[in-house]
Inverse folding.
């Protein structure tokens, strides 16, 4: 890896998004999602599953107070994954072991949102939350409400399943974001105190463990970048290095003495050391969080071996385990990656969070190695699976993003009960909505990065960027006409690197450029105007014929946007539709209309084969990210040709 | 229903199978399956899962002796479904709650086999088993080793899950078969004693329960037919009548007081009274066993309403829930029926036992109503899913019979872990192998039935039949050339009714006939020779286009035999093969060879659509029932066209 190529994202305070397509989403997050999620956190929404997150912090705060005062603090079990038994003590922890992260993710989203649009009320509410969080912290820095409420003596005794390091990771992300956004360092200081404790406990001479659900790795690097404290980086490296070593820490902490156990830890990406990993395996969200942390550590230590592992895993995802929508995770069992080319449409998991995590991984890889393949995938995930996660009104969410839905199957077939035919108001396991909120609010961090010599444009989102090299105004009609204009006020010589989208048929740039690994490089030494015109015709895309489900089928794309067919536009039994090889596409925003045939329904279960009869018809496609906004109905990305 | 149409199967002693196709299977069962299963029952097979069935009877026998002697008999828990905990007491019951049925099914198969081919050794071994079984019976007639060993006070307290009535059913089937085959009535007498106890306990004034796993219903009718004791029939009717009444017995026995609970009992077909049921639901084997008992009771009482329920359920199976192979049960979850037209190939359950049970149901329906649709399905199940259940050497078995197998998916995808790419030596839950053995050994019972006026030929299997109407010799080359010859020595006037297979394109009968509901009726009043020639061309069959998985695909059949493609003949990646619309079939027994195309592998995950390129190739088909005899490999019934 060549460190001269390394780039960093532009800080959010230096990039102001102003884009017809994105303003709406950012405003939705600010006006709907963040307030709604705050209500949800506080259990103020009727009919939604209970979060109890704030409640837990209040209870933990009381425990801390009582401990300080030397009072007797009760002990409750910490042996479960979810604590909702109605018979359990009202004073004990409630919800999932990772429920603390709800408030951290909310705070992180608020932080980003405040930078887009300052809001006094929101800031004050956030400060109240931070005060509450800090009041729940033990004097030694430890901060996890499950253990503080239920049993202080069991802290860090079940790293595999109890998510303390995962909660810490989200805390650190929130703390850094809030500090960067507001300059208020109360949460950051509290987080550093917790991080210091973690660094003291986990090291070569201490506990040699690591989290069952990764994120602490990338979070510690963020905290290092924010504070400059090198021990945070060292502990991130330590976690990655220890992971998967034999004998397995997860075995040791459970008291197992076993030989043949690596299969148990694929789920946690702990089957072997990360540096030896070549494929994406296990729980998809955990995977991409780990891979992001690996990329961070590889970069910080200029560790080629670790970076090669990242590249190998990346290639495995991109070339063999990625849905056309940028979704990952083919199975509900363990919310996990399966095997190469196993991409079922109707059984897909494709968790919204997994695609968000894939964007984290992609950005880090793009920052290390200027190759457009990373941002191509980032864009694919963003415009399809990530956006699909949220309803058009910002009030309901998909956790799972299948590529084919038959509502009857979701209701009657237990194998598909994870697939919801309409978005849900909230989730008991509410990871996706706040993850969406923080991603969309910080989208500027994904648009462009800068190195010593270059400014890289990865995503074409209208914005105003401030850098010491130049101020750049971008006017973008990217997803629609494919036109993007740059108005550059040059401050010093640099090279602008524009990603050439893998979804364009061609492109035209108004100035001379040199092309390398999917970026067009343009030397800038004075104020400059640049126009790019991407040619985004409507395209028929086929899947590798090793993906059994999609053989004989195609998907429709325009630029990075994947389209689908819905019952609302095309009637029931979408499988009866067939696209003509020359479908004579018509773009009628947001729809695409095409020529096809509809087979007549044949209810006879088995009969002599005849060439199917059908009538010509128009088939209407809608962007995948917009599906499911018109009530429960059938949907399919792939269609027969 | 018209009772003059009712027919009965020909008793096995009056039908001797002699058929090129079937002799081999019957001999396999006699020489391989029955002895192998006896070893398995006795846990004498290395590497196979343990049965412990005989062991349980020995323990129960000791309990009975101790009880008689007034000794203290220990109590163990009866709260589980499977009892294999290594820490549990060695004196307690081991295995599944229904493990007693292993020996009953074996005895039933032995009984049938002894009629085909008397074997002194086998008879003696059977007698030893019967002595053991009888020695384990309580003085009041009760006979179920789980409760006799573990806890006599809990008898009949968990009808939903503990399978005592299910075990009784298999006992009764074995007892009747053994008595019919040998005249030895020891087991029959013991069974009647148990049946008498059941009749005393379960009635309008007693317990108003019914078994969670049906079979007692049809078994009690068998026992009634064998003994003439009407109370057995009445109790069968009682079980069917009580089933699904509200409040639910299954709720009452668990002490539940609930309102919205019918969804819980679809699995057991106890959501509503059988007479009101219209669709096949729940656990498929339980379903077809219940439906068989319903048909028996409807017939015995000439109950039109109950028979109409049977017909409605039948039509639902035949027209909307039946795999082309005669398999039923689309999901592993609950081994169950799902919803109309939901027939996934690779996730299919299609338990061997379910297709055997479907044959039970079909035969009963055909005996009540002479309509060939019943025997058509019976034949489809027999020649495909049932035969597929057993390896060509009789030594390994399929429990699950999918229509598409990718071995990698079976190993790596937990959603398909129920699908085994090769047959297994034995199963801990060993229902299918002995069920296969008893079905094949008694195949004569399915071939033909007789009413007052008619002899119906349902299956064309070479045999010699003795009846008071005639002695009939059938020489059959049915599945191969489609030719069947009848040599009839007439004893009195009757009408021979020959089923016209739904899988023939045409047929030619050498004598005049009248056709009604799929049977050709021929009046016989003297010694007669009849030839039938069925025209069984190789056919392309399509599935309803409401079955999403099979749209654009076909299956290949010749007569009732469904063919499939295997990797052993066609290489990896069967999905790349496409059949020509005019495939120019060649029959090279047992193979069918056809013209098609093979697409080139395209490893690029997503790319611009082009009409697929491929080379012409020969595609080789093998009968579905013979698949998986050449090691682990891919298989598919459906192929693109």
């Amino acid at each position: 890896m060549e460190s001269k190529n390394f780039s960093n994202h532009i800080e959010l305070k230096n990039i102001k998004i102003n884009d017809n397509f994105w303003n709406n989403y950012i405003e939705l997050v600010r006006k709907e999602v963040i307030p709604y999620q705050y209500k949800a956190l506080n259990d103020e929404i009727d009919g939604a599953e209970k979060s109890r997150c704030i409640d837990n912090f209040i209870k933990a705060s009381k425990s801390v107070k009582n401990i300080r005062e030397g009072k007797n603090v009760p002990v409750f079990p910490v042996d479960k994954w979810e604590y909702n038994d109605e018979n359990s003590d009202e004073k004990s922890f409630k919800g999932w072991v990772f429920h603390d992260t709800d408030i951290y993710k909310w705070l992180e989203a608020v932080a980003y949102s405040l930078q887009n649009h300052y809001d006094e009320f929101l800031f004050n509410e956030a400060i109240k939350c931070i005060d509450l969080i800090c009041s729940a912290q033990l004097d030694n820095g430890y901060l996890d409400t499950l253990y503080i409420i239920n049993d202080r003596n069991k802290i860090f005794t079940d790293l595999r399943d109890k998510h303390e390091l995962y909660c810490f990771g989200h805390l650190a992300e929130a703390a850094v974001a809030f500090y960067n956004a507001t300059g208020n360092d109360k949460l950051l200081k509290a987080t550093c105190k917790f991080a210091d404790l973690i660094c003291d406990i986990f090291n070569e001479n201490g506990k040699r463990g690591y989290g069952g659900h990764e994120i602490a790795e990338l979070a510690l690097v963020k905290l290092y970048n924010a504070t400059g404290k090198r021990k945070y980086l060292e502990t991130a490296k330590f976690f990655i290095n220890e992971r998967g070593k034999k004998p397995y820490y997860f075995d040791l902490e459970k008291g197992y003495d076993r030989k043949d156990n690596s299969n148990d830890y694929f789920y946690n990406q702990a089957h072997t050391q990360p540096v030896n990993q070549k494929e994406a395996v296990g729980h998809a969200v955990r995977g991409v969080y780990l891979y992001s942390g690996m990329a961070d550590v590889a970069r910080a230590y200029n560790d080629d071996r670790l970076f090669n592992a990242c590249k190998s895993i990346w290639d495995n995802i991109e070339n063999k385990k990625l849905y056309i929508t940028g979704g990952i995770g083919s199975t509900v069992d363990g919310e996990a990656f399966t095997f190469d080319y196993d991409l079922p449409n109707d059984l897909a998991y494709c968790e919204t969070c997994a695609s968000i995590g894939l964007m984290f991984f992609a950005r880090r890889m793009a920052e290390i190695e200027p190759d457009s393949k990373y941002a191509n995938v980032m864009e694919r995930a963003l415009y399809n699976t990530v956006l699909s996660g949220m309803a058009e009104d910002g009030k309901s969410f998909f956790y799972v993003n299948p590529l084919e839905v038959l509502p009857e199957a979701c209701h009657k077939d237990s194998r598909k009960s994870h697939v919801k035919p309409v978005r849900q108001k909230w989730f008991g396991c509410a990871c996706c909505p706040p993850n969406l909120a923080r991603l969309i609010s910080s989208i500027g961090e994904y648009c462009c990065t800068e190195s010593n010599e270059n400014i890289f444009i990865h995503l074409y989102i209208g914005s105003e960027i401030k850098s010491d090299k130049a101020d750049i105004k971008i006017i973008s009609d990217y997803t629609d006409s494919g036109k993007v204009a740059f108005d550059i006020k040059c401050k010093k010589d640099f090279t602008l690197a524009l990603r050439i989208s893998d979804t364009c048929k061609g492109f035209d740039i108004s100035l001379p450029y040199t092309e390398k690994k999917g970026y067009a490089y343009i030397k800038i030494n004075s104020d400059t105007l640049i126009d790019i015109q991407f040619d985004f015709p409507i395209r028929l895309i086929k899947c590798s014929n090793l993906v059994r489900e999609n053989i004989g089928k195609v998907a429709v794309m325009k630029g990075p946007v994947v389209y689908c067919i819905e019952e609302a536009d095309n009637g029931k039994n979408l499988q009866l539709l067939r696209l003509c090889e020359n479908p004579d596409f018509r773009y009628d925003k947001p729809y695409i209309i095409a020529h096809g045939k509809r087979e007549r329904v044949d209810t006879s279960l088995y009969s002599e084969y005849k060439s199917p009869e059908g009538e010509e018809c128009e088939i209407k496609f809608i962007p995948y990210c917009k599906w499911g906004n018109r009530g429960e109905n059938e949907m399919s990305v792939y269609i027969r040709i």
Remarks:
- The longest helix of chain B spans residues 20-41.
